[in-house]
TrEMBL record, chain B:
Protein name: Transcriptional regulator
Ranges where the Winged helix DNA-binding domain occurs: 15-94
Native organism taxonomy: Bacteria, Pseudomonadati, Bacteroidota, Flavobacteriia, Flavobacteriales
Domain of life: Bacteria
Length: 201, 96
């Protein structure tokens, strides 16, 4: 075999590994959007729902609005990611709902749902102090777990989220800012890096 | 140094190389998934799978899903090791 053949082999291997394992990777844009939604959500919360900077009591109107805001940010992020990824999949002629996607989602959801339920239980017993830290930690774990089914670098985002969550847990009272950093700033940074990598290819 | 030794004859074919590439990054894959990704005929794929299975590079597990037979393939430790050696050898050859 000539050098050309070896080169062809290697590019074929790369191509197959990507196509078979990578859930075409969420497009970088969806990360940027998720970050922007999180920042807008945080802004709304900061200016309208946390006016006196005191703690928010459970079952108050403010608290319900905060939860609603969180859900809105999450739903918007997921819908945007879904639409952008479907578009990308179509452009690459790849199927979006195959074995890889199912495994990716399952592995992503296990830590995430566990964390979500745990946070709800904690909230119900009046422990809101660590909510931001727990959200960051479990989200980070979900990313690291799901990254086994992608070729991209999402695990590094996961590590950052976990570390941010742990620092946040050690510094009570700054949860809001860590949340903004983890879900807003980090998503935008990570999304931009991904976006420029995609452009280069 | 034995670069040429590490070039594995078994991987000297596009389809066998493809099957291993897929199984390196997926825990397992079934027949149809491999077929779809590699774009080959049933008979062709089956014979290459057999070759890899005989070398014990891949593991074949037959099971039933909704009473339909389903065969899943996964790479063995030996298969993964050999594939890595092969890739390293390829890279060295190219860099020469």
């Amino acid at each position: 075999m000539s050098e050309q053949d070896y080169l062809k082999d290697i590019s074929e291997i790369k191509n197959l590994m990507n196509r078979s394992s990578r859930f075409i990777s969420l497009s970088g844009l969806s990360g940027i959007f998720a970050g922007i939604y999180a920042l807008i959500g945080a802004g709304v919360a900061y200016f309208f729902l946390l006016p006196n900077q005191d703690y928010v009591t459970l079952h108050s109107w403010n608290f319900k609005m905060l939860v609603g805001l969180l859900i809105a940010v999450a739903v918007l992020s997921v819908v945007t990611a879904f639409l952008l990824t479907t578009r990308k999949a179509k452009a690459h002629n790849a199927k979006i709902w195959d074995d890889t996607t199912k495994r990716l989602l399952l592995n992503f959801m296990i830590p995430l749902v566990t964390g979500g339920i745990y946070i709800l239980i904690k909230l119900n017993s009046q422990h809101y102090g660590l909510t931001a830290a727990l959200m960051l930690i479990f989200y980070g774990l979900a990313l690291v777990n799901a990254s086994k089914y992608t070729i991209g670098n999402v695990k590094y985002l996961g590590y950052v989220e976990i570390i941010a969550g742990l620092i946040c847990a050690a510094l009570p009272g700054y949860g809001f800012y860590f949340w903004v950093f983890g879900f807003g700033v980090m998503h935008i940074i990570y999304g931009s890096i991904m976006y420029f990598q995609e452009k280069k290819q | 140094m034995g670069i040429i030794e590490n070039i594995n004859k078994l991987f000297d074919h596009r389809i066998r190389l493809g099957i291993m590439s897929i199984l390196m990054v997926n825990d397992d894959a079934d027949f149809n998934r491999l077929k779809e990704l590699l774009d080959v005929t049933d008979g062709n794929l089956a014979s290459h799978i057999k070759a890899l299975e005989n070398a014990e590079y891949i593991l074949v597990e037959k099971q039933f899903i909704d009473r339909k037979p389903n065969t899943r393939y996964s790479a063995t430790k030996l298969g993964k090791m050999e594939f890595k050696k092969h890739i390293d050898a390829l890279e060295k050859l190219i860099r020469k």
